[in-house]
Amino acid sequence: MNDRLPRHIAFIMDGNGRWALKKGLKRSIGHRYGVKALKRIFEYVFELGINYMSIYALSKENLKRPKEEIQTLIELLNEYIDDCLPQLIKNKIRLNIMGDISILDDSSQQKIKMALEDTKHYSDKALNIAFNYSGRDEIIKAANQAIKDGHGEINQEIFEKYLYTASIPDPDLIIRTSGEQRISNFMLYQSAYSEIYFTKTLWPDFTKKTLDAALDDYKKRHRKFGDIK
Ligand code: IPE
Ligand code: IPE
Ligand code: MG
Fold first, then answer.
1. pLDDT by residue (tens digit) across 139-180?
2. If you take atom 1 of ligand 2, which residue's CA is the nearest one?
3. Residue 45: closest CA among 206, 194, 201, 166
4. What global pTM score does this model have?
5. Which residues line ligand 1 (CB under 6 A)?
6. Which domains does the chain have, with CATH numbers?
């Protein structure tokens, strides 16, 4: 029995589109309600004393979607950063971004850089946002950078410093909503020993109660990391 909370919890926030379509609404409305769910959960996670939270907001593969939907997701990221920055500062939470944000316009990139700068000295807690992210690309990018830096042979400790999550512990628990049971290129390296929880709840319907259920389930898991104990 593991009665501890995860130190790092990650969310694959899936099902916004289906949530909207079920209600006869446009997919973009689903994404807006998805951000509402995110705001509730962000507050609750840190209130509970979980110090690291990751969210999958856009995969690199999502760029295959219609331009209009990508534009909505970019706008929502912008609004969300504006919205949560005061909370990050108030609660001493560092912002971390995983992925290629060069798809954003200059002013959004600048805004993100400033938010990163404003929160970079907070070392005990982090909100980690994956945007235009690919787990495979992250690994390849890290390997290329290690080569460029002149490393002949590397080990896990050196390699991990090149990942977006350098200085963030691996996720203990990954929650995916909407009933899909796959990883979809999320944190491939970091999830080696993560516990994974799937729920049929669509992300906009995700509440504190849904999280409590996931945490109760997590507490019952026996993490062995390859050992027999
Ligand atoms: C998750 O919801 C959000 C993103 C992938 C950006 P989806 O948009 O994938 O919702 P479904 O899976 O189509 O319902
Ligand atoms: C994964 O969800 C990406 C995000 C939640 C941002 P998708 O909806 O894109 O994943 P697939 O296509 O169903 O695997
Ligand atoms: Mg989906």
1. 999 999 999 999 999 999 999 999 999 999 999 999 999 999
2. 184
3. 206
4. 0.98
5. 13-18, 58, 62, 73, 178
6. 8-133+171-220 (3.40.1180.10)
